Structures are given as structure tokens and as C-alpha cells.
Backbone:
């Protein structure tokens, strides 16, 4: 079992021993087979572009390189049977101000950016280049029903080419 801490992930952009650019084989050697994999049209786990361990999704390029670590379906992030996650202070619907205060307390530098395509949403980008998406205001015809943190993501799309 691999133990990871989200505080360090936000600080460094490395999830325990897992970093972007790693091969699928290297991720598999650390975590074993995923709990779930997809998309649904994938022929098998070896060719699936998404591996899911608990609440954490790993996205692989056609060249079998890890290009994204993502989570948007969590109450308190968990990692399944082979990935033990210390969630630090992270939970769904954590208010942006609370999250920013926790990052300040941990001395993790961050910036705050508007998300033009998502009114009422900001992204908090940490020193490790992890993007945390937070709803800060509700819109009248919005699918979101509550304020706060709803996803975090580290990606490097240059690994797709």
C-alpha cells in the first residue's frame, strides 16, 4: 500500500511516489490493479485511459504516460485498497476562504484565478501546480447546489503529444 498526503501533493505536485510522466507500468507496480477503469469502451485495464483508486483518477496518454491526477467525487478523499490518503484538511464543499487559510497555515504558496467558462468559480493553484476548483457564488441556472471545493487536478497536457 502506498501512503500519500494531500498537503504534500499540493506543495510539490507529487502524490507520494507518483508523478506526472510516469509510465502506466510504474503506476501499476506501486498501486496494483485499479478499483475501476474506463472509459466503458476500453477493451481491458491495460488499454484503459482512466484508472481509479478510491476517489482518485489517473489519466494515461496513448503513449502510456500519466498526464493527469484528478478527483471530483469525494466527501473526504480516499484512495481505495492500495492507496492510503491522508486528506490533510480537504473535504468536499470546503469554503474557498477556509482552504486558502489552510494553505497559508501550511506555508504552501498559491494563486487565485477566475474561471471565465464557469461563472462563480475560482481555481486556487498551489505551488505544486495542483488546481483546486471552488464555487464561490451560486448562479440562477447552475447545476451546482452548494458553495465550496468540488475538485482538484494536476495535469500536464504536453505529455499527450
Residues:
Amino acid at each position: 500500500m502506498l501512503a500519500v498526503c494531500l498537503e504534500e501533493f499540493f506543495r510539490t505536485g507529487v502524490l507520494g511516489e507518483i508523478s506526472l510522466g510516469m509510465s502506466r507500468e510504474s503506476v501499476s507496480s506501486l498501486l496494483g490493479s485499479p478499483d475501476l477503469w474506463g472509459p466503458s469502451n476500453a477493451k481491458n485495464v491495460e488499454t484503459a485511459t482512466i484508472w481509479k483508486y478510491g476517489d482518485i483518477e489517473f489519466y494515461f496518454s496513448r503513449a502510456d504516460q500519466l498526464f493527469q491526477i484528478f478527483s471530483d467525487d469525494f466527501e473526504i478523499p480516499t484512495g481505495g485498497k492500495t492507496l492510503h490518503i491522508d486528506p490533510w484538511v480537504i473535504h468536499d464543499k470546503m469554503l474557498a476562504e477556509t482552504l486558502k487559510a489552510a494553505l497559508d497555515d501550511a506555508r504552501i504558496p498559491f494563486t487565485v484565478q477566475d474561471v471565465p467558462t464557469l461563472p462563480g468559480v475560482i481555481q486556487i493553484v498551489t505551488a505544486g501546480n495542483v488546481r483546486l476548483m471552488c464555487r464561490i457564488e451560486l448562479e440562477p441556472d447552475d447545476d451546482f447546489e452548494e458553495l465550496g471545493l468540488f475538485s482538484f487536478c494536476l495535469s500536464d497536457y504536453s505529455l499527450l503529444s
The chain has a mean pLDDT of 94. The CA atoms of residues 37 and 161 lie 22 Å apart.
